[in-house]
Amino acid sequence: MGLHGSLDYDPMTDFMYWTTDDDIERTRRDGSRLETIVELEANTYVWGLRLDHAGGNVYWSDNKGRISVARKDGSFVRTLLTSQRYPGQLVLDPRNGLMYWSDFMGAIGRAAMDGNNQTTIIRSLIHPYATSIAVDYTENRLYYSVNDVIYSSDMHGNDIQLVKPGYGERVGGIAADADYIYWTIYSTGEVIRLSKSSMNQTVLVDELRRPRDIFLSTASPHNVTNACSSSNGGCKELCLAHPGGRTCACRDSWELQEDGLSCCPSGYTAYGGACFKAYNQDKTYSQAREVCAAAADGALLAMPKDKDVDNFVRELKNAVDTISHFWFGLNDGNNEGEWVWEDGNQHDISTDWNLWQPGEPNGNEGENCANYYGSEWNDAPCSSAYKFICQLDEAISCSLGHFRCGHGLACILSWKRCDGIADCTDGSDEEGCVCEPIPEDFAIDSRLAMLPNQLGQTTFEEIQNSSVVELLNISYSIAGKYHPEMRTFISTVIFPQCNVSEENKTRCSSPNAGNMTSCMGTQLVPCRSWCEEVLNMADDWIKNQLPRCSLFPSSDHNCWNSNSAKKGSEVCYHGVGINYRGTWSKTTSGADCVEWSAPQAGYYKTEFPWANLDNNYCRNPTGLERPFCLTEDGSQEECDVIPCDAEGCWDRGPPNYGKRTPTKRFYYVGEKVTYSCNEGYKLKSGYTNEVRCIGGGHWQYDKPSCSVNHRQRLQEDLLEISSTSLPPENVIINFTGSVVQLVDLDEKNEQLVASALLDFTWQDSRLSWDPKYYDNVTSLSVHGNDIWTPTLTLKRNADPVYKGLQKDVPVRVSSDGLVEWSVETLTTTVCDADPFFFPADTMECNICFSATTAIAQTILDMGITPCNSYSSTTPAGEWYRKDKIFAKDNSDACLAVHLSRIPLFHIATTVGPCIILVVLMNITFITPLDRGDRIAFGVTILLSMVVSLVFVTDVLPVKGALPLFATLVILWMGLMGLFLFFTLAIIVIYDRQGSLSPRTKIIFLRYISKMLLLGDLTEEKRTGDGEAGLLHQPDIEMTNYAFQTDDMAAVDEGRRSTGQPSTPPTDTGLETTGSSGLPELISCVKEMTKEMTRGLGDLTKAMKNEEEVSDYTLLAKVLDRLCLVMYIICIVITIPMTMYLSK
């Protein structure tokens, strides 16, 4: 790159940037898209160059002591810093909006990336010469070199450390990442790496030619964002970061406007997205045009198209002169009365905004140009000299496939340029339509081309330095990957065909052609149908570099198309045939195509006007696999058009005595052909009826041949003499079969749904033949409906829609007349259930087919197992199953299924709960009689038994006799109800008071009570009547008389000691020995004694918490125990009695 080279790389766009002696260039890493983005003034050399990935800018320093910036594409160049201390290499820190540079005077400088706050952070370096500098974004340190020594510091120039001592070899460029430091040696051409951890050096590359800079992809912070990362920070031109924010800036000689975002040339004022300036010079209308264009590239006379712009422009001109006339950009110079703005748009006086003076424009002679007169519009001769106002709009950017008009305010389709019709208002699209010969360096067929092309390239040099050269090479480098006309198509896009006469074509092809006027012509770009076909086979990255096919003209306009390819004498197609222009008009089925102008094809003509839809020829406007057309019924069918370069197979024709499907002239790889033979013929053995095309013109198998179908002939001969309604004489039908599966068993209705497989065989002499006459065919399969088969009726059928055994199944016939009929059927038959021993009940199901009695025929059992013998038992769901096969009366073919229920489930869920309820009923007799819930508990048990009975009757079929278990449940329920009545009577007896007769007491309370293990209740009664611990009234009374006299007390004491009660003294004795008030005292004591005796009795009863037990209470206890015993005996005895009586 020379002495003054510097390098950086943008991974987001894959562009590599570097400097040369006179400009800044960029190219892709593969060498494509070489561009000069900044042309430097003479004698200017760039020392340092770095990319601002966050803001999309490029910074550089030069030998004029300047640091400048521009967009990455080189636009909007601005000088940020000028210094007498010449800046050398440059680095950026977009994270913080700062830039650093080395100074040839021996210092390190720093400033914000917008050029403000310039300062020197490191001074007085030992060697005042070119110093390399780099940023370690991981450790936030600066690395810089002084001749052959490398130092580091923090980002403020402090904490300076020696990294590499000097060895006399000057360092060129430096780079650093998280683990290593890299530098180049200018004199030896080496690239050296130093490990930060071990400080070991490694030479990575040597023998380079004076490397001055180095770029390290792992060092740059590519994913950093700042205030300029989104939408250029809102700035119209340059967005420059600084610590904490951003600054909008403009290119040199342009000024930032008051909004802080927009830019205009010096002296211009921004408004409404445009820049305006009022000139205090008197010029004619045309001169004013020229001044505007010269002062600012692309500027026009002002165009006040709406009220706001008009008010602004009037204020602008009033600031210069309020009285004088000012030209603005509106005239009717081409056609009187048709006013046109400078950008070519029409101005309608009646509808558009205007401020014409009354009576203006009056259309007087020569008054064809508009101007401000005071505050209103006026028309005046264009030759008058007035002041004027210029307007500079932002030139719009035109995308690929478009051409920007000269005034920069409109884009037209590129193919409309130089077509003889002016489409730009300034007519610039019909200027410079010169045909030039293509330089030989491009290795393109010698012909003429017209630039600019659809890619916007205006010179052959620009094309040579762009990536389109890569497209030209790629297009044919991989055979078969791309369209065979890819290179021709791309060359036509890059170098549009030039349409001139043959005479001028020869003259203009000469490099020394003098008269360029004769080389003027019209431009011919590729037709859209050609584009659609070629790019349909292109990669996306190729499509992205070319205009969309919708931007190409159709064949109705002037365009260039390739010559139709041919295979032999017939037009073929490339790709999928979008550009096929042959005249084939038949589908693969042989149907004729209808014209594209027909009503059923109108959609295609409207939607695809570019697709060469002529007459009724096959075309492919929608990009299907191959060309197609429409038929009379409006359906879309493929055409039998031959591809030019597709790999496939040619048609081999039909086999002898046969045909093939589909019928085509050409088959693609993978397509198959199905061969079939005519009636009475078949494919010979060893051939297959389906053959695929495997490519290279080869088929997967040889074409098959057809031969006579002896089986079909045999079948026709046999069926000709056979009758479906007339059976053989005295036919004996042998059968065997089995029940394959029990599909469903309905116990309630005694029905079995089963799948049965039956095999019948019989002899029919009408179906015998001699194999030697039929190619040794010994067996034949015929349809059951075509020969006689026995009519068998299903007995005990429970399915009203059952239609019998299926006859429309294949039947095997042997040459000796043996007929074998194998049929599988689904039957629903009635079974015989024996539910008496539920849940150990059984069911017998017979599936019998009976032959009609109108025919003499005999059915014999030919089963593998012996006739009328059951097979071994096997489980089938909740049943044990065993089968047998037998013939009944030589007229019925029967399959029997014997089912025995596995009782465990119902024992656990039905029988067991009932037994538990019967046992729980005993609690009724054990519960104390004075409890009120005895009857409620018994009724609950009874209702639970009812539920169990309902379940049993719901499961089992209704028979004349109840199952044993159901009978037992009913009997047990009756016993429960009966004993509940007994219990109720016992409760009533329990609550009665009084005494029983002596005989009753002896029978129930003594003898029966002992039998029921209750003991002698009469003895308990006696003991209960005489309580030992109570004092009798006489004792209490005798004690109460003890106070009379000591003598009397002694006598009484003696009597009590003998166990005899004392006799109270008579009233007479007392009256004679006591005073007159003593009788009353004795009477009171007696009354008190009686009350005390009564109270002591009640207290004694309360302390013992006992009530007096009556005879009826004891009788209730005996009866209750008697009911318990009787209940148990009745429950047990019902079981054998029910079994005996039911059988």
UniProtKB/TrEMBL annotation:
Its main location: membrane. It is found in: Membrane. It is a multi-pass membrane protein; Single-pass membrane protein. One of its GO terms (cellular component) is membrane. One of its GO terms (biological process) is endocytosis. Residues 571-644 form the Kringle domain. Keywords: Disulfide bond, EGF-like domain, Endocytosis, Glycoprotein, Kringle, Membrane, Receptor, Repeat, Signal, Sushi, Transmembrane, Transmembrane helix. Disulfide bonds join 418-433. The chain crosses the membrane at residues 904-923, 935-952, 964-990, 1122-1141. Pfam families: FXa_inhibition, Kringle, Ldl_recept_a, Lectin_C, Neur_chan_LBD, Neur_chan_memb, Sushi. This is Uncharacterized protein LOC109477667. The keyword Disulfide bond applies.
